[in-house]
Amino acid sequence: MKEHFKIEDGHLLIGGVDTVKLAEKYGTPLYVTDEKRIRERARKFKRAFPSAELLYAAKANWNISILRIMAEEGFGADVFSDGELYAALLAGIQKEKILFNGNSKSPRELKMALEADVKISIDSEDELITLAEMADKEIEVSFRVNPNISVKTHPKIATGLRESKFGIPAEEATSIYEKAIRLDNIRPIGIHCHIGSQILDISPYRETIERMMDLVAKLTEIGIDIKFVDVGGGLGISYSGEKERRPSDLASLILPIFERRCEEIGIKPILVLEPGRYLVADSTILLTRVNAVKKAYKNFVAVDAGFNIFIRPAMYEAYHEIAIANKMNEEAEETYTVVGPICETGDILGRDRKLPKVKRGDLLAIFDTGAYGFSMSSQYNGRPRPAEILVNDGSDEVIRYGEEYSDLIVKMNLPARLM
Ligand SMILES: *Cc1c(COP(=O)(O)O)cnc(C)c1O
Q1: What does residue 222 show for φ and ψ, rounded to 5 degrees?
Q2: pLDDT tens profile 83-96
Q3: Would you give the DSSP letter of residue 15?
Q4: Sign (positive/negative) of CA torsion 13, 15, 21, 27?
Q5: 47 Cβ contact partners less than 8 Å away, ≥ 6 residues apart
Q6: Of 105, 138, 188, 288, whose CB is crowded by the most CB atoms within 10 A?
Q7: Smallest Cα–Cα separation from 397: which of 35, 6, 52, 13?
């Protein structure tokens, strides 16, 4: 178990707070995040890349308190939608440190990005044209290129392959920059890529930075002044005891190449990284109550959290460690499959897990749910979304209230003729 967890009287503690008490106080399901852990991970990244610009990938977890913590730690933000931009600005992330990404930005989103005066990473020629038509002053942009890099991760989160929907193919990169400089209100100053997520074998970053710098060399030759090189995010975490690579490992891989190539080309751009998962994933647990234990085809443990609030196992076949938060000192003795309450066979949170004897009313903790957890939640099956709690050195505060039934229907409308 990682340092922000402890066991006392058989109970799991996070950030010095008893999870059993949290579940009693706030109800379940419940997301609980340890603030200190996020700050530690953020600082590790900062120390590894002291002169890089670090943009937190907001989509991993864009609760406004989390964004605020990132702002306090000196992070900017990589936002992928108008809503994420709205939240990042509200959290006090400086506009100079916001990059608006996205493979299908709407005119409304582009207008918002222009008004907010944040940098935009352009994903297609059509987007370049839309933007040039809209901008009423010179704007600084980068282009997202697809470096055609294969990484060992789940296919749904590999984003840098030739067949992926993201970015401009590397072969076409120079020609789109050439088109951009011919437009008088567009000034390309950056180049951007993102090869995928949950990357534990970091070796593909070597080829990524090499290919990016090949492009930077070509762009410099045609007179483009590249001020930043953004290699995206993707550093993975250990979900099931895999060896985790540290930001410093990533730095030792990337920085020497980046610095050597910059010197060869004779330029001094800033390196940009966009970590998401690495910063927030292991800060958070999802607490969920056991409604029933049922011996059927398998030993099923039916809990009150389903894939509507935590979709990673169903969507990516992701493995997340599960423990009985009120029986931390008991020996594992039976094999259980933990399932949620959603009316779908695929609503499985953990398959064939060895756990101490599970009883109705027990409290389960699902670990490493801070990234792509709440941020991917929905109200499917008419389930109000749960609260989020921030713990810090023994204190606990609400950072999002649990939804009420009224939140399920607040935007619905009953036309008068149906009344
Ligand atoms: C999702 C995403 C990230 C963050 O990825 P992580 O695996 O969470 O680090 C960074 N940049 C872009 C463009 C993304 O889409």
Answers
A1: -90, 15
A2: 999 999 999 999 99
A3: T
A4: negative
A5: 247, 248
A6: 288
A7: 35
Taking alpha carbons only, the member of 287, 280, 283, 314 closest to residue 303 is 287
- Is 41 close to ligand 1, i.e. is its CB under 6 Å away? no
Share of the chain above pLDDT 90, in %: 94
CA–centroid distance, 149 to ligand 1, in Å, is 15
Q: Whats the size of the chain, residue-wise?
A: 419
Percent of the chain with pLDDT over 70: 100
Average pLDDT, the chain: 96
The pLDDT value given to residue 152: 83
Q: Residue 400, exposed/middle/buried by CB under 10 A (0-12, 13-18, 19+)?
A: middle
Question: Does 363 sit in the ligand 1 pocket, CB within 6 Å?
Answer: no
Tell how strand 270-273 and strand 228-230 pair up: parallel
The question of whether 193 is a catalytic residue gets the answer no
